[in-house]
Amino acid sequence: KMTQQMRDLQLAQARKPPGPSSPNAAKRLYRNLSGKFRVNYTSFDEGSLAGRGEKEKLRKSYLFQSNAVLFEAVELQDLDRVQELLKQYSPEELDLNTPNSEGLLPLDIAVMTNNAPIARALLQAGAKESPHFVSLESRSLHLSTLVREAEQRVNELTAQVVNEAPNADCSEKEKQLKAWEWRYRLYKRMKAGFEHARVPDAPTNVHLSVASSSSVQVTFWEPLSINSAVVTKYKVEWSCSPTFSPPLGEAVIDKLKNLHFTIRGLVSGTAYYVQVSAYNMKGWGPPQASVPPFAIPSNWREYDGRAPRRRGQAEALDHLLGQVKTVHQHCICHEPCKNQPQSRKHSVSKSLKHLFHPGSKFLKTLKRGLYLTAIFYKDDNILVTHEDQIPVVEIDDTYSCLLMQDFLWFTKVSCMWHEILWLRQCVTVSQSSCSCILQTRFKMLLAISQMQGLLGIQDLGQVFFEPVKDKQGNILIVTLKEVKTNQTFESVRWVPICKLQTSRKSVSSPEEPTALDTLLISVQDKLAYHQWSSRALSPGLYLGYLKLCSAVDQIRVLVPERLPNILCHVKIRSNPNISREEWEWLQKMASMEEPISAEPEAETSQNDLFQELQVAIKELMTLVNIPLREAKDFRLYSQEVLDFGGQVSFLLLLPPSDDVCTAPGQNNPYTPRSGFLTLPLQIFELGEER
Question: In its keyword annotation, does this UniProt entry include Cell inner membrane (predicted)?
Answer without folding.
Answer: no
